[in-house]
Amino acid sequence: MLATRFNRWNSVHGFRNEVDRLFTDVFGQAPAAALAGRVGAYPALNIWEDAESIHLEAELPGLTLNDIEVVVDDNDLTIKGSRQAPKGEGVGYHRRERGVGSFSRTVRLPVAIDADKVSATLNSGVLLVTLPKAPEARPRKIEVKASKS
Amino acid sequence: MSTEMATNCCTQPTEVNAERTRSTATYSPAVDIVESANELTVYADMPGVRPEDVEIQFENGTLTIRGNVADRQDEGTRFLRREYGVGDYYRTFQVSEVVDAGGISADYADGVLTLHLPKVAQARPRRIEVKGK
C-alpha cells in the first residue's frame, strides 16, 4: 500500500472520501442504523456530546503521534494516518489480519464548534478528540419572568 | 495517477461469544503472526488496555491472551454515533511445540501487544559447515 498525501478534494478524483453525517433521533439516542456503522470505513468512530463539547473517539492501535493527523475545517473533522508493517528481515507470515496502509475519514459535525479550542489526545492507541461547541451552539438557559397581569 | 487509497486499511476486532463473568462484550483482537529464524512474533491490536490488565498464558501448546478494558464512557452518555463497542479482549492460539515457553516475553505499547515466542534451540536454523579436504 502506498502512503499518499491525502486531501479532502480527492473525491473529485474518484477517491473514496466518506463524509459522514451525524444524526440523532428526537430522544437523543443513536438510532439503530448508526450502531451498525458503515461497513469498511476506518477507523470506527464513537461520537457523543455533552452541554459544552462534542467528543470523538477512535481506536488506532499501533500508531504514534507522528502517524496521525487530525484536521478541523469549518464543520468537518478529518482523521487520517498510516501504519507500516512490522519491520523484520526474512520473515514469513502465519497470519496477517491487522493491515497496513493509509486511511482517512471525515465526519461532518452537527453543531458549530470552536476550532481554536479543539484538543486531541492519544493514549494506548485510543484517540480522543474534544471539540468545544461554539458559544452560539451551546444550550442557553432562558430565564422565565412572571408577566404582569 | 490513480493510487489505491485504502480507506479501510485495517481491521476492527470481531465480537466473540466468549464465556464471561462480566457484563461487557468480548472482542477477538486482530493479530499478525510472523515467523523469523529465531522466534514467532505475535502482534495483537488491543487498544485501551493498561499493561497490568493484560494476561498471557501458555499451556500445553495453547497461547491465550486476555485484556481487561475499563469502560471509557458513562452509562448515560448521549451518543451521536456509535460504531464500535468497548470491551475485553480474548483470543487463543494453538502454537506448535517449537516454542520455548520459558523464554516468552511481551510488551505493550500504543495499543499493540507484542509477544515474542522464541523457538527452542533445535528448531532454529542451523548452519552446517562443509569441510573440504
Description:
With 149 residues, chain A is mainly beta. Chain A has one domain (13-84, 100-137): Immunoglobulin-like, CATH 2.60.40.790. Helices cover 3% and strands 36% of the residues of chain A. In chain A, the strands form two sheets. Chain A has a four-stranded mixed beta sheet, with no helix packed on it. Chain B is mostly beta strands and 133 residues long. Chain B has a domain at 22-73 and 81-119: Sandwich (Immunoglobulin-like), CATH 2.60.40. Chain B has strands at residues 14-16, 26-28, 31-35, 39-45, 54-59, 62-67, 78-82, 88-94, 105-109, 112-118. At the A-B interface, strand 2, strand 3, strand 6 and strand 7 of A face strand 3, strand 4 and strand 7 of B.
**Helix proportion of chain A:** under 10%
CATH topology of the domain at 22-73 and 81-119 in chain B: Immunoglobulin-like
Overall mean pLDDT score of chain A? 76
Give the distance, in angstroms, between the N- and C-terminal Cα atoms of chain A: 74 Å
Q: List the total number of helices of chain B.
A: 0
Q: Report the structural category of chain A.
A: mainly beta
SSE order of chain A: EHEEEEEEEE
Please give the largest β-sheet of chain B: 5 strands, mixed
Distance between the termini of chain B: 60 Å
Radius of gyration of chain B: 19 Å
State the total count of DSSP E strands of chain B. Answer: 10
Percentage of residues assigned to helices of chain B: under 10%
Order of strands, main sheet of chain A, comes to 1-7-5-4
Under CATH, the topology of chain A is which? Answer: Immunoglobulin-like
Radius of gyration of chain A equals: 19 Å
Q: In the CATH hierarchy, what is the class of chain A?
A: Mainly Beta
Q: Note the quaternary state here.
A: heterodimer
Strand content of chain B: 35-45%
Unreliable spans of chain B: 1-7
The backbone outline of chain A, from C-alpha atoms, is: elongated
Beta content of chain A comes to: 35-45%
